[in-house]
Amino acid sequence: xxxxxxxxxxxxxxxxxxxxxxxxxxxxxxxxxxxxxxxxxxxxxxxxxxxxxxxxxxxxxxxxxxxxxxxxxxxxxxxxxxxxxxxxxxxxxxxxxxxxxxxxxxx
Length: 107
Known about the structure:
It is a single chain. The protein is an all-alpha fold. The protein has one domain. The protein has helices at about 1-30, 35-45, 45-65, 70-95, 100-105. It is flat. The protein starts with a helix and ends with a helix.
């Protein structure tokens, strides 16, 4: 029973990762000219969110805490994972969408 549950969860996490990549590639590839820059910037959070959920879900069995003494290590690992993914999103993906970020927001 536990093996079936784990397999199903892994499939769901992989589906979320693949879905985030499909959304990202389709919306920010051939369909990029169909949307405004403001929409593209704000919508970019959805594929990022799906990718973070999928990667966190796949890594959870490997990094979940076993006892009280390692909770700080666990929190640091999760924080490092999230900040790395966030920096990739902000410093690599968003500049490809809009090189002059301030003007794209209408500021």
